[in-house]
Design a protein that fits this description.
By secondary structure, the chain is α/β, with parallel strands linked by helices. The protein has 10 helices and 4 strands, in the order H-H-H-E-H-E-H-E-E-H-H-H-H-H. It has helices spanning 3-6, 10-28, 36-44, 62-69, 93-104, 141-156, 166-184, 199-256, 264-279, 283-306, and strands spanning 50-52, 74-78, 109-115, 121-127. It is rod-shaped. Keywords: Membrane, Transmembrane, Transmembrane helix. The chain crosses the membrane at residues 12-31, 202-220.
C-alpha cells in the first residue's frame, strides 16, 4: 500500500509539502540577498568577536577589543576604507552593511566601521533579527539597540579620536553589561556564528521543515480518519443499542403480562439480560446480549404455543 493511499490521497502530501516550503520561506527568507562583504565578515567572526578586513583603517587595538568583549553577544567588524558601492543610493551605507551582517549573526549586537556616504569612516550599531526581547520588561530588542546607540554616542564622544576608536568598543561593552543585567537579568553571551557560505545547511533546513510538516499533516490526517471511524462506530453502536432496547421493552411487557402463569425463570433471565445490556459497550458484548434475548424470545414463543 502506498503512503498516499494510506492517508487519503496524494493531495494531502502535496499540500503538506507546499505548506512546509511556505513556512520555510517565511521563517528563513532564503531570497534575502546579503552582500559578499557581510558574508566574508561573518566568516571571520566565527572564531573571534572582532573582524578586521584587509584595507580597514588601523584605528582599533584588536587584541584589547577581543579581551574586552569576551563572550558577550557583541561582534565588531571593521571594513575597508572604501565606498560601499553595493549600497549605492542608501541613506546610510554603513547601517545597511550592519543590518546585512546582523542577518548572519542574528543573536548579537553588531558594531561596524565603514566608509559613510560622504567618505567619512564611521560606526553603526544594530542588533540581529533573533536578538531576544526583554523577559523582565516591555523592552524589545529594538529598544535595547536604541538605548545602546544613545549611551555609546554620549559616553564615547570625548574619548574617540580619528586614529583610535577602541574607547567606543569599551563604552559599548559597559552599556551592554548595564542594560543586559537590568533588562534580562544576566549578561547575554554570544552564540556560535553559523556557516554562511554553504548551501548545504540551507537545503537541509528546507528539507527538515518540509519533512516535519508532511509528518504533522499525515499524523493529523490519520488522527482525523481514526476519530471519524470511531465516530461512525459509536453512531452504529448507538443505533444498535436502540434496536436492542426496543426488543427488551417488548420482553418486559411479556414478563409483566404473561399469557399464562408467571414464569419466574424467564423473569430472572430478563433481569440478567437487562443488566448485561446496561454494561454492554462493544459490538461483541451486544452480540452476546442479543443471543440471550433471542433465547428468551423463543421461550415466550414456546410458552404461547403451549398455552
Amino acid at each position: 500500500m502506498r503512503l498516499g493511499d494510506l492517508f487519503g490521497g496524494r493531495r494531502w502530501i502535496y499540500l503538506a509539502v507546499v505548506v512546509g516550503l511556505v513556512g520555510f520561506a517565511v521563517v528563513v527568507r532564503p531570497w534575502t540577498t546579503v552582500e559578499e562583504r557581510a558574508r566574508t565578515a561573518a566568516e571571520g567572526l566565527r572564531d573571534s568577536p572582532v573582524h578586521v578586513a584587509a584595507g580597514a583603517r588601523d584605528v582599533v587595538d584588536e587584541q584589547h577589543a577581543r579581551e574586552v568583549i569576551g563572550d558577550r553577544a557583541i561582534v565588531v567588524a571593521l571594513f575597508e576604507d572604501a565606498p560601499l558601492t553595493e549600497y549605492e543610493g542608501a541613506t546610510s551605507p554603513p547601517l545597511e552593511l550592519c543590518r546585512d551582517l546582523a542577518e548572519l549573526t542574528p543573536t548579537n549586537v553588531v558594531l561596524v566601521y565603514a566608509q559613510g556616504f560622504y567618505g567619512e569612516y564611521r560606526s553603526k550599531i544594530c542588533v540581529g533579527p533573533a536578538f531576544p526581547d526583554s523577559p523582565l520588561s516591555e523592552w524589545t530588542a529594538h529598544d535595547f539597540n536604541i538605548s545602546l546607540v544613545t549611551a555609546v554616542t554620549d559616553s564615547s564622544r570625548y574619548r574617540v579620536t580619528a586614529g583610535n576608536v577602541t574607547p567606543e568598543i569599551e563604552e559599548l561593552v559597559l552599556a551592554f553589561d548595564a542594560r543586559s543585567a537590568e533588562r534580562y537579568g544576566e549578561i547575554l553571551t554570544r552564540s556560535q556564528v553559523g556557516d554562511t557560505m554553504s548551501f548545504r545547511p540551507l537545503a537541509l533546513a528546507a528539507l527538515g521543515t518540509v519533512l516535519t510538516t508532511v509528518a504533522l499533516f499525515l499524523l493529523l490526517r490519520r488522527g482525523g480518519q481514526l476519530l471519524g471511524a470511531k465516530g461512525r462506530r459509536d453512531r452504529a453502536l448507538a443505533r444498535r443499542r436502540k434496536s436492542v432496547d426496543a426488543r427488551l421493552n417488548v420482553l418486559a411487557d411479556r414478563v409483566l403480562h404473561p399469557h399464562g402463569p408467571p414464569d419466574a425463570q424467564a423473569a430472572g433471565d430478563y433481569v440478567l439480560i437487562l443488566h448485561s445490556f446496561g454494561e454492554a459497550t462493544t459490538e461483541t458484548q451486544l452480540d452476546q446480549v442479543e443471543h440471550r434475548i433471542e433465547a428468551l424470545e423463543r421461550t415466550f414463543e414456546l410458552s404461547s404455543s403451549a398455552g
